TrEMBL record:
Assigned keywords, A-Z: FAD, Flavoprotein, Oxidoreductase
Keyword DNA-binding included in the entry's annotation: no
Name this polypeptide is given: FAD-binding protein
PANTHER family documented for this protein: LONG-CHAIN-ALCOHOL OXIDASE (PTHR46056:SF12)
MF terms in GO: flavin adenine dinucleotide binding; oxidoreductase activity, acting on CH-OH group of donors
Source organism of this protein record: Leptospira semungkisensis
UniProt-listed InterPro entries: FAD-dep_OxRdtase_2_FAD-bd, FAD/NAD-bd_sf, GMC_OxRdtase_N, GMC_OxRtase_C
Domain named Glucose-methanol-choline oxidoreductase N-terminal: residues: 83-300
Keyword match Oxidoreductase: yes
Domain FAD-dependent oxidoreductase 2 FAD-binding: 36-68
């Protein structure tokens, strides 16, 4: 079992509040001053905090979620989702057209993700360059940063003995059809395939941010505070003020004495709160232009549950060790879909099966023999995604609707996935169409052209997401983005956004490696300008 870094003992959790209250003479508000405050501790914020702290900056990092170690990770899905995920694992759009999975804990989504480690292909980064002014972000130009990230979080190819039956459906079926399934890279040290990634790794094998970049930041002098939600950011000349309020854990009583509010004065604010909460924070603070919250990308995802004669136990083993990218680049547009599998545990699987009552129960009895194949779409094929985040009437609201080409790519992906599943030996498939009211028996003669004729209107196909990104996009002009190419908010000095929100298009890959690499580069560039930014020269 991997150990917890000693530095993590310094994370300020609620059980330390009483001591701080007494020491600092706090009534209800703790007032702090620093050079940089980082809001959020996921793949962006943790990297940024570590990078600035190592460069000699005085840094405070705040995180809305709680800090957990394996002692509190549990296989109970209800408890884990309530404690580790935003909105208990179900961020639901206003039209109920999409549900989004996103982490809310120290380490953010890196604590609960499925380890998939990819960087976008060149046709994605070339589009960033041509349309939005992103220079030198191709894989080759970014190699130093990507390699540094890989080393820090233990990225390597999944060994053959850990490719489980769920992922093997892609390997077996894809090869039988002449497709090109690939073995994925995961980020871990010492993985033994327990399959608990989405609930927090119980042996600290997955190298989440709370085991890597966050202790790096603390060792370099940063202060990390959990259970504090940023309410708003206020500008007053060169000083920015972040006001945050205490947020309790969903399943643990708060101590009798708590610090109710933080007021942090800083010269630099870095918003790393994610593509859902980040734009909401900026909007309720009255900061940024009309691009804040616009063009949210989510990698629309849909599921075929294939039922096999043999046991699959999709939750067992590393969650994602295979991918099929043959549909990635439809008609050389740079847009399309890719196929993976998901380790859906019973609670999440039952929520995705589009049946109710006895029929749902009968299907879930076959759960051990089910494989959860997923189609992920690079959204934005029609120029801009029809999704957004808005702070309205005191509440964060998310809106989403499939655009026509993204919808067609989703249907193409579901057709391809069904063909792969049949080639792997599936006997029946549960499709994500509410009007297909029974599992469809399948065999080698089954045809799936009918899928291409299905409606993509809201409610006609079930869509989810685990990859919200791009809602505060960076561009070389405020006419095309919310932040500039240093990721500084247009119209506001020394307020930066550094997380998955900055991408101007859909990534077409799982976001973790890109987010860490891109924001490592941005943070290092900011750190190099310390004297200029802080006004010391």
């Amino acid at each position: 079992m991997g150990g917890i870094p000693a530095a993590n003992d310094q994370i300020i959790t609620p059980n330390k509040h009483a001591e701080i209250i007494q020491k600092e003479g706090i009534k209800d508000t703790w007032k702090l001053k620093t050079e940089a405050v980082v809001i959020g501790s996921g793949a962006g914020g943790a990297v940024v905090a570590a990078t600035l702290a190592k460069a000699g900056w005085k840094v405070i990092l705040i995180e809305e979620g709680s800090y957990f170690t394996p002692a509190k990770f549990t296989g109970d899905e209800f408890i884990s989702q309530s404690r580790l995920y935003r909105d208990a694992g179900f961020i639901i759009t206003e039209e109920q057209t999409l549900s989004i999975l996103q982490g809310k804990t120290v380490g953010g989504s890196t604590t609960v993700n499925w380890q998939t480690s990819l960087y976008p292909p060149d046709y994605v980064t070339n589009e960033w360059d041509k349309r939005f002014g992103w220079k030198n972000y191709g894989r080759q130009e970014m190699d130093a940063f990507v390699s540094e990230v890989h080393e820090r979080i233990g990225v390597h190819e999944v060994p053959p003995n850990l490719i489980n039956a769920n992922n093997n459906t892609l390997m077996k079926g894809g090869r039988a059809l002449g497709l090109h399934p690939e073995v994925l890279k995961n980020n871990n040290r010492g993985c033994i395939g327990l399959g608990r990634c989405g609930l927090g790794c119980p042996i600290n094998a997955k190298q989440s941010a709370f085991l890597t970049w966050i202790p790096d930041a603390i060792e370099a002098g940063a202060t990390v505070i959990s259970n504090m939600r940023a309410q708003y950011i206020k500008e007053d000349g060169n000083i920015k003020t972040v006001v945050a309020e205490f947020t309790p854990d969903a399943y643990e009583k708060a101590p009798n004495k708590i610090i109710e509010k933080l007021v942090i004065d800083a010269q630099v604010v870095i918003v790393s709160a994610g593509a859902i909460e980040g734009p909401a924070l900026l909007q309720r603070s009255g900061l940024g232009n009309d691009w804040v919250g616009r063009n949210l990308k989510v990698h629309p995802t849909s599921v075929n549950f294939a039922i096999f004669d043999d046991k699959i136990n999709m939750f067992s083993g590393p969650p994602q060790s295979a991918v099929i990218k043959d549909g990635h680049n439809q008609d050389n547009t740079g847009y399309g879909y890719w196929l993976e599998v998901a380790p859906f545990r019973p609670t999440l699987a039952s929520s995705l099966v589009p049946y109710y009552g006895q029929k749902q129960f009968d299907v879930m009895k076959k759960y051990p023999n089910m494989s959860g194949g997923i189609v992920l779409v690079r959204d934005g094929a029609d120029g801009e995604a029809n999704a957004s985040v808005k702070w309205s009437l005191g509440r964060r609201k998310v809106y989403f609707e499939l655009t026509p080409t993204d919808g067609k790519n989703l249907l193409k992906g579901l057709k391809s996935l069904a063909e792969v599943q049949v080639a792997a030996g599936a006997k029946a498939i549960v499709f994500p169409f509410p009007d297909v009211t029974d599992p469809i028996p399948v065999d080698k003669n089954s045809k799936f052209d009918w899928i291409l004729d299905k409606s993509i209107e809201p409610g006609k196909v079930l869509v989810g997401s685990a990859h919200p990104h791009g809602s505060i996009q960076a561009a070389d002009s405020p006419e095309r983005g919310a932040v500039d190419m240093n990721f500084q908010l247009y119209g506001h000095k020394n307020i930066f956004v550094m997380d998955a929100s900055v991408y101007p298009t859909g990534l077409s890959v799982n976001p973790q490696i890109t987010t860490m690499s891109v924001n490592l580069r941005a943070a290092r560039a900011l750190a190099a300008r310390k004297a200029e930014v802080l006004g010391n020269k």
